[in-house]
Amino acid sequence: MELKPGLSAFVTGGASGIGRALCLALGAKGVFVTVVDFSEERGKEVASLVQIECAKFHSNLKFPAAVFRKCDVTNSGDLTAAFDEHVATYGGLDICINSAGIGTPVLFTKDQSTWRRTLDVDLIAVIDSTRLAIKTMQAMQKPGVIINMGSASGLYPMVKDPIYSGSKGGVVLFTRSLVPFKRQGIRINVLCPEFVETDMGQQIDSKFIDLMGGFVPMEMVVKGAFELITDESKAGSCLWITLRRGMEYWPTPTEEEKYMIRPSSSRKRSTAKAPFQTPLNLQLPQSYEKLVVHTLTHNFRNATCIVRAPLSLPIKPHHVLVKIIYAGVNASDVNFSSGRYFSGPDRPQLPLDAGFEAVGIIAALGDFVTNLEIGSPAAIMTFGSYAEFMMVPSKHILPVERPDSEVVAMLTSGLTASIALEKAGGKMESGKVVLVTAAAGGTGQFAVQLAKLAGNKVVATCGGADKAKLLKELGVDRVIDYKSEDIETVLKKEFPKGIDIIYESVGGQMLNLCLNALAVYGRLIVIGMISQYQGEHGWKPSNYPGICEKLLAKSQTVAGFFLVQYSHFWQEHLDKLFHLFSAGKLKVSLDPKQFLGVHSVPDAVEYLHSGKSVGKVVVCMDPSYRQKTSRL
What we know:
CATH superfamily of the domain at 8-250: NAD(P)-binding Rossmann-like Domain
Oligomer: single chain
Strand content: 15-25%
Distance between the termini: 22 Å
Shape: elongated
């Protein structure tokens, strides 16, 4: 639902705290508001403030832009009358926010009337108001949005007030159970902020608030509510808001899998494409082709050659044979071919199987592999993926919904962005300025979108009009095309306070520029140095004079990130990325240039390093799986 002037909203608990902030924020969008509360003085004040905001959008109205309705939300008659008055005033109901809530000042073992009152306000009234809102929206036969105010204490226990925690937990599960109403155009979601600096929040022990990282800014709560209103994919969703993790939907796909029991066909219908059906005859050939590194040099073409390897059965115990369909191309392929990833006495002997990532189909299983099935889609992130077949230990298999090229992009590229921003960068907050360099590449496209989804202003660098166009389509707020603008000049002029978080993959002069642009307390995440990977002498380290002085002067952080060292997060974040993609929240851009078969891999690597690619470069190992590559 687009938040626009002329919509109407019904807000319980609108005289104070979160309810008050939401009333004013809606008024600032030109939305008509009924402020429902038991406090007449404060409620009328909020209504008058909303009227002032709405006046900027409306003139010569024949009805008030905001009204106050005194109401005890635990009285069903009062609540019904308030809804009726809203419809009579505004002719319908677009948004209902159930924000009224109280805490339990007395331990429930000592005073029965107090805790029963808390349940009546925090849970029973929410159920009743949701019922009346649904009934009103159904009668109007128009789409509507309902947001129930939960709490982080409804997701985990709050030992100081178990009744409040229990009632909010009830609100969370009640709301998440209302997904079917989406078929009628009514989306019902729950918002669960951690402690906010309201009258109720200030009653919490300040030491405990400090342990949690401080109060959640009201701006984050409003932003979360507006996301639930405007995002048409959200129904039965629970948005958890903390300072520690930003805005995050609960449960994560990984957590949900622990308890959700779905028929496999139902589960797969939620994905971006139809359920995967294995279309090939999985009879195994006697041999297959693969690409190996036979001499160490940064020149990938000279370093590699194609060999034919025998494919013998049975498969080794605890191993899986994967039929490779798509393999991903990475800038660091040239680091592998030059031997940069191997040193010391355990350095492997040539030849080395090349390639870092692929998706395919499980073609055969070794003994003792009981958790996988032949014909199932799988992703792999081990050396040797530039091949028609690959045998790997079963523990390295990452189950996926489909063996598609989009999933390849989610592996090294997508996982690097997702895990680096969350783990290496400290935490992904909202309301920050985030800069992504080489943003139109395989990993940059994910970094800009994930930073944007977390509620940040995103700046991105690229080279060329096609890349700039892609980044604008991905939602980047400010695209800096270095072929037409000077990056340093733009950053100094438009971001004088500096950049809060920088996701950097270029190295060299770009890294030095980023260090100079970093804000006080800023964090710079180094995920690569592509500008230094190739050259006459291969990878040549750069000097960054004065880096210690720069970091000390502004309390800044520079963190390196190497994906291999975060393998324990791969499955969780791959599931997260695929979930976002399936829900339409994440786009995957693949470079349209097609590379078919093992023989095309050196061409693909050179194309990536030419700077001409836009999006993820992928090689199709089996042309029978070739797809059209329009991804946006």
